[in-house]
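Final report, results section. Input specification for complex C-07:
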Amino acid sequence: MKQKLKIIKIGGNVINDKDALSSFLADFSKIKEAKILVHGGGKRASEMISELGLKPKMVNGRRVTDESTLEIVIMVYAGLLNKNITAELQKNNCNAIGLSGVDANTILAHKRIIKDVDYGFAGDVDAVNSDIIKVLVDNELTPIFCAITHDKNGQLLNTNADTIAAELAKGMSNYFVVELIYCFEKLGVLADVNNEETLIEKIDFISLSFLKKENIIAEGMLPKIDNCFDALQSGVAKVIIGKPEVIIDNNLKHTTLTL
Amino acid sequence: MKQKLKIIKIGGNVINDKDALSSFLADFSKIKEAKILVHGGGKRASEMISELGLKPKMVNGRRVTDESTLEIVIMVYAGLLNKNITAELQKNNCNAIGLSGVDANTILAHKRIIKDVDYGFAGDVDAVNSDIIKVLVDNELTPIFCAITHDKNGQLLNTNADTIAAELAKGMSNYFVVELIYCFEKLGVLADVNNEETLIEKIDFISLSFLKKENIIAEGMLPKIDNCFDALQSGVAKVIIGKPEVIIDNNLKHTTLTL
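Structure output:
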């Protein structure tokens, strides 16, 4: 029987708040099952870009990564954030190993093809090397991925952390029963984004088509949900969207997505 | 019989020169034996410190690491340098995995005790976790260590790369026949630092005491050599000091240290 594996993604709402991050990492360390953490970048990269006199550039909510920006996101994501998160987990007796997609060739990507927008050194994931990640997990290590990948041709690439979490979940489903958990600032998927009472607790393939047809899922959430169902169709057992505390609090309401 | 393992350390003379680094990494990738790379920081950290309006502070040739400096060395060493070196090795089909001492708890250190000088967040190594590094090497991965360690209490520490290489070599000698190679700008240990004709090709314990007594080894080199003999006495099979090309060119002259 396959072993369970939890893949948990955190973003700016956790990373930007020192206490929230500390509390999340304490919770994360308590998870007994095999686990992987994927972290986004938060605002530290944008601050560093400003401190160095450059200007953060975003199109459609995604960062445009020119060469100087790439240097900075590598420094902040793979260096500062990844190593400090790993250090705090080690303090909590979680045997964390901080990784970028380049390390052990774990996540291969290609530079995004230019259509309407040139996103620069942004990477779209091609493959996850689940064999070597399994070796790490089997040796009781907890991989901590930042959102940097590579193209196997010497080029590092800035990559969306949600996508990395989904691709890791799909890849690791070969070997594990994978639960993918997206932590964000709300209880889960809300019919009315300003009202937590309107939490949609369960979404399956049938209710999804209804929610889409009736325009109940807000626009920004749609690509995220589509990614989740793509992951489910590729073998991921379950996807959860909820607040960070959901990772250890079974009573906290959240959204569960299944096929 | 124990397998061979080469542990190679490079510093600023290789890292600061893009072509020299590329050529070194191409050579390094050709080494067939199990191998580990340890890299120093080079001048990029000092440049970044200046770009951010801070001032690099050195005492006795060692960096004084205050909190802002620590942030920057983590970003540059563990982020920018470590991931770019790893990416280039991956391009050369060397299955590199970039690590800091915090990752998988590989290198434990403590904040240097204040005697005459307060070096700030500088780490002195306490232990190398050779078991988990062996797991990586046995799985045909090539660990690439930057000079960042941790204290298992959440604190990252800036650590001398020469020391890390020596401590890794000592630790890994439990499992491997370890050859430790320090790459630097000269052919090896020179009796007259300005004359490569005065290369001392072999130093053993007996000739060392002679060289010391006669003040033939220059002052800056002494602690380095003492570290090498400490490593040899702790089980390292051989230490080599030489130019970067020595790692694949058997005909290039160098200094070999043995007991």
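Residues 67-91 of chain A form the longest helix (25 residues). The CA atoms of residues 116 and 127 of chain A lie 25 Å apart. This concludes the modelling results for the funded period.
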